[in-house]
């Protein structure tokens, strides 16, 4: 489908042929994204023509083949004809990454729902945007270019590359923003630019552009996008099941996209209770209460079987990336669950941890815990400190956003990780409950 606009005679067929070849190249190089590549709706824009030859002139503002959230791919004829097929195909995969990962919905600069924006204020392609929008575009580029590089698909000159910039791999756009801010400041003092100012369109930041005048009738509907994303995620999962190689970013996205929505409180309670039951399953003998079979023995008082009360330690990440309000609410939830299993009023050991662990606090209520610390996080030190306590705990509950290194080996205790927010990670040997960053107070929706 193309927009109904005047075009330079004789060039439309060449542009269509170039885009068709680019689609085939992209689908061949990343077959798990083929359905997304072919779902892109091409909108051929009116070209700028050379006054002498009448040929379309390339516009640098459309170098990235920008897209909008309706999956419209805006093609400027001069740019399309001047771009090699392989590079145009790379940009298609790049734009699919922005759209499928929902970068526009995650953008910190997107207009509020229902907020009307004047046409005069809409940015044009390649226009100078505010620094926050520009940095978000670069951070979102870093998130998806990382996965393209994992497929040995090197980007064109000037695009953001986490590997070339020395940034850690497999991070989200939200994680890359502060890294790029620091790096840009350092490089600026040396007179260098971080990367070219490439505009990927409203599909990355949610801000409409002046050329997006196709209206709601063009592109994919919300239902179309929902079905397409589920189909892509299912295809990726099938590829994983067949032991196919895939970049970690797409693996993570497919897993989260197909994961059913569950009540996080129910999940948290189930994980902690399972951990408590596992360590409490080791029974012992006790003479505090005679066995119910005592009448069967003459002159002997047999012991009864008792279940041990698990000794639990809380390790609290106070690095600064998680607010004290969220931590306080989560502590109340966790201690309430532990009280329900182990009995109320029991003393509980807890300590805060950033780069180094802080002194252990022995408390009866969550409100008695003093949250101290700030800075970075190293949960290797936190787990090691918990294991060094005497008596050694049966269960360790870690409250963290997961932005931390973890011990490579499983510690000699059951570990439950309450992972706060959408980012971060937990080790494979731990039980995990994902907690929303903006968790409401109990009783709120």
TrEMBL record:
InterPro entries: Put_metallopeptidase_dom, VWA-like_dom, vWFA_dom_sf. Residues 57-304 form the Putative metallopeptidase domain. Residues 313-435 form the VWA-like domain. Pfam families: DUF2201 (PF09967), DUF2201_N (PF13203). This is Predicted metal-dependent peptidase. It comes from Nonomuraea wenchangensis.
